[in-house]
Amino acid sequence: MKTTMKFTTPLFAILFIATLFMSCSKNDGEDGAIGPQGAQGPAGAMGADGPAGAMGADGQEGAQGETGEQGATGTANVIYSDWIASELGSMPAAEESEQLLVSLGLVDFNTDQDLIIVYGRRPTNAINNDVRKLPFELFSQNEVYRFRLSEGFTFAALYVEAVTSDGGTNLFTYFDDYRYVIIPGGVSASGKSSIDYGKMTYEEIIEHFNIPE
Fold it and tell me: Residues 22-32: what's their mean pLDDT?
């Protein structure tokens, strides 16, 4: 009887401890079930815009620069002729002679705004020429060279004229040829312009507008 009791009590104690250990280990090692997701909170207030940055290396546009000053009026529409041989010297001696240089359509020439300049040229030696802007007066021969614009309904005819200042009759052979330059918008209807092209020399005009000789 004593032998049985000694064997049963330790065995019971061992089984009880083992059962308790397994129960604790199972509860500590496993996570519980995931609960349902909560409701989304309200959106936060939008922050203030930051300053615009300069153009970066990645090509992103930065802050817009200030508007630049307006450039000078272009000269692409300037009209100019070649040198036109004079016919006045082949006409009979007269108190007045004239020669038609060109007939211009009204779309090519605005009589209220465009500026037209006419030049006469004569050689001074084998390589140099004397170019004069009309009107020009040759006092030694009592001759005046000028130009005239005759307007029609759809055109304007440009003439060069030569007259005597003393009422005599001349051949008008001073100039060998003529050319004209038309500068669109060169003179406004009020007669004012930001640049007074009429006071420029021939050399200044052809340089300014890049006109070939």
Answer: 49
Written as six digits, the tokens of 202 are 């021939």
Inter-residue contact 145 to 175 (CB < 8 Å): yes
Task: Report how far residue 110's alpha carbon sits from residue 179's, in angstroms, rounded to the nearest whole number.
Answer: 19
**C-alpha–C-alpha distance, residues 182 and 80, integer Å:** 6
8 A C-beta contact, residue 143 and residue 168? no
> How many CB atoms sit inside 10 A of residue 94's CB?
16
Q: What are phi and psi of 18, to 5 degrees?
A: -65, -40
Mean pLDDT of 48-62: 52
Q: For the chain, report the end-to-end CA distance as a whole number of angstroms.
A: 146
Q: Which two tokens stand for residue 69?
A: 């000053």
- Model confidence at 17, in pLDDT bands (50, 70, 90)? low
Q: Which of 71, 110, 80 is nearest to 202 (CA)?
A: 80
Q: Check: CB of residue 168 under 8 Å from CB of residue 95.
A: yes
Instruction: Give the DSSP per-residue string, 118-162.
Output: EEEEEESSSS-EEEEESSEEEGGGTEEEEEEEEE-SSEEEEEEEE
β-bridge partners, 55: none
Per-residue model confidence as pLDDT tens digits over 179-199 = 999 998 854 444 455 678 989
CB proximity list for 20: less than 8 A, separation 6 or greater: none
